[in-house]
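Let's practice the habit of predicting before peeking. Look at the sequence and jot down your guess about where helices and strands might fall. Then scroll down.
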Amino acid sequence: MQGGEKSKSFGPSFRRLLGELRPERWRIVLVMLFAIVSVSFAVIGPRILGDATDIVFSGVVGKQLPPGMTQEQVEAGLRASGQSQLADMLSGMTVTPGQGVDFESLARILVFLAVLYVVASVFSWAQAYVMAGVTQRTVYRLRKRTDEKLSRLPLAYFDSHQRGEILSRVTNDIENISQTLQQSLTQLITALFTVIGVLVMMLTISPVLSIIALLS
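Done guessing? Here is the structure:
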């Protein structure tokens, strides 16, 4: 089996394809805006889920502490008894000794998180919907121009070229363009904004850990 034929003029062909997309440029900008909103909500989601995890963890820890004392008093007592590591852990948390998980706050965060993911899904769907329209209109113009071109060609052209090659140009090649615009271009836009969004979120959480992750 032989591999696929490599493009001989990718650059000029790609520029021509961008030219075909010029009538849809404002819709493509709209697709990018939808992608930014969808990716932003999806990236913020794990951060909010982390807040919910903190509430659960703080409640579990607080339940194990003696009630009737403040957090500062508990920390001072731990340091006095030589448990400095546990005291340091408590100093980075907000706990109420003797109180368990705040299920009311946890429910509010989870409901907000669910709404956030639903909104992200809606914008993702809108992105795909608009891009589908862009793809179909572009492919329609390509097919129409191809049909007009074939109608202008002399009969000698069809006698000197194999019918399979002509049909491949009319059907397979344009269908490949359609799939590229609908799938690859949408995935490229989403992936680009996802990488940017994740990097921004990582830097806001911990610049040091972000640098370590990037270097590794």
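How did you do? The mean pLDDT is 84.
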